[in-house]
Amino acid sequence: MNYLPCWIKKQIHLDVEISLYYAAKCKTYDVPITNAPQPQPTTNHKSIIAQQQVNEVVNIMRDNISRAMDRGEKLDSLTYKASDVEKGSIRFKQSANQTRKRMWWGNMKIRLMIAAIIIGILVCIIATIVVKTNYSQNSKPALTQSA
């Protein structure tokens, strides 16, 4: 977008003011050469003021268009960033689910190992009790009947 830099705007504004000043000064020294009707002094001044106002409006519109284009670019950038964040959130959710499943299996393995150790200890205890009771029953002297 072509818009005028600030220093050019100031120069144009100063040029218009200087033109108005010299136009007013020159009119006081103008001597009519012919009897032709002279233009109204206010019409020239009014046209310069109108032109100045038009220039100001044009500059304001250029600034507004420039800002609107910048805003559009920022919205496009924001849209791209939002889609990137959305993709990142989907990847995060997938990796979080994978981590949760891995941790669940890790906990389940530890529980199964603990359960196997407890069952092994119980089997050892029960086996020693059974062996002792069988040994004690076998080692008792047999009662013989005397007749």
TrEMBL record:
Keyword presence, Coiled coil: yes
InterPro entries for this protein: Synaptobrevin-like (IPR001388), Synaptobrevin/VAMP (IPR016444), V_SNARE_CC (IPR042855)
Gene name of this polypeptide: SNC2_6
Source domain of life: Eukaryota
Protein name: Vesicle membrane receptor protein (V-SNARE)
Keywords of this entry: Coiled coil, Membrane, Receptor, Transmembrane, Transmembrane helix
Domain (V-SNARE coiled-coil homology): residue spans on this chain: 46-106
Organism: Basidiobolus ranarum
Transmembrane segments: 110-131
Annotated signal sequence range: none
